[in-house]
Amino acid sequence: MLDNLAQQVLSFAVFVVLARLIAPEDFGLMAIAHLIVAFVRQTFLDAIIHPVARSPTPTDALYSSAFSACVLTSLLLSGLMLIAAPFIARFYSQPDLTEVVSWMSLVVLLTGTAAVYEARLIRAMEFRPLAIRAMVSVTLGGGIGITLALQGRGVWALLVQQVVTSATALLLLVAQSPWRPQWKWRGMKSRVLSPDASRVGLTGIFGFMAHQGDTVIVSLLLGAHATGLYSFAKRLTSAIYLIIGSSLLKLAIPAFATANHQPVALRLAYTRILGATFLLMTPLYAGLSFLAEPMITIFFGPVWAAAVPVIALLSVLHLFLVVNQLNDYLLFAVGERSVPLIRTSLQILFALLFAWLFVQGGLSWIAGGFVMASAIVWPWPQWRAFHHMQSGFSSLIHTLKAPALATAAMCGLLFGGIHLTAPTLMALIGLVASGVLVYGLVHTWVTQASPCHNALKDLFHLRQTLPPTHENPP
Fold first, then answer.
1. How far apart are CA 226 and CA 217, in angstroms?
2. CA 355 to chain centre
3. Mind listing the pLDDT tens digit for each residue in 265-320?
4. What distances in angstroms separate CA 239 from CA 35, 231, 245, 288, one per listed residue?
5. Cβ-count burial of 330 within 10 angstroms (0-12 exposed, 13-18 middle, 19+ buried)?
6. Interior CA angle at 209 toward 32 and 87, to 5°?
7. Contacts with 388 (C-beta within 8 Å, 6 or more apart), sequence order
8. What is the value of pTM for the model shown?
């Protein structure tokens, strides 16, 4: 977890510097090209790798077959990207997109070549080489990208950053792995592309639309500039989720499995994880929303000012994401696997509908449509989760009462402070410090003065939600 945290912080620091130096439209061009790379990884490559990773006893020959399939698939898809690049650029009316997509095809090839090395290390529980790979590649790629951005290279700085990061990651994986693949073409279809591959590929398409569908919609409806602004806002807001929310939600899988369908145990694990997650994330998202304008003025520049309302809307969207993700984990644990899938499908459909209806309003209206789509589909899986925990919405209010009231008090302070102070770094630091103090004091007062859940205590007892292991004794 610490390795992931360090990588996320380092990657975010690189992003902050690059965003200060590069225009939104250049970020939008890269975001469009990234969608293609993400789609290839989550569908074609994962469809080859996952059946191997799930094999009871994967052999070197099986890994070699998977490697051959990944390289061949990556070569074919990279070639298709090169051919399609001019047509994609013409579709978006962005001539520069031709070179961007063409060079990003190299990232597809590098990613496909590295995929089996990565899967083999994960299967062997060898995480140290993966951590070294991530830290060094992000540092080197980010450093070169920043250097080029300082020289005014624009989108080329982002392109070189991605290519260098991917190439360095591949070289480090090969250097740290004792395994050397062989070209295995015979039997590749039966041994690697098993019947499980088609299901993994379909799941990958579904997951891609769930996590990247919003960016796809914005790019198709509004073009590169708006996509850059949206990606910027999404990167800022998702950083909080990836560093805090995702880490805490990982505790839900073993916690719900240990509960073994027992309502009291499920309710206890659910309350602890949701309470601790909202305790940390709610004030961060509220603070980010209220302080977005001075923060962008100070750190990023006025070219990103149009992203301010989008940041506030995506903050709300990520809070819904936390609740929906936790509900999904619980419902999967109790066997209701269809509910999360239906919920996600409906959310995608509503997002498409609202985006089409609100396109004339611009980026903020479309982002608001995404929030509405998430809100509309939330009650049904929440009710199903309550059913298995034998609880109701009153228990949800009881869990979130203290962080909600403390966040409201903090927002009142920030709202007044923004209008009474100049947008300077010292004023911003003072507002952040004051907000943290008010939040802590009000949260303490609410938990002591009224009957509600105290999530602060759960931060020191979350180990109890994990199943017993050698590192986590009962």
1. 11
2. 21
3. 999 989 999 999 999 999 999 999 999 999 998 999 889 999 999 999 999 999 99
4. 18, 12, 9, 11
5. buried
6. 35
7. 261, 263, 266, 330, 331, 334, 336
8. 0.87
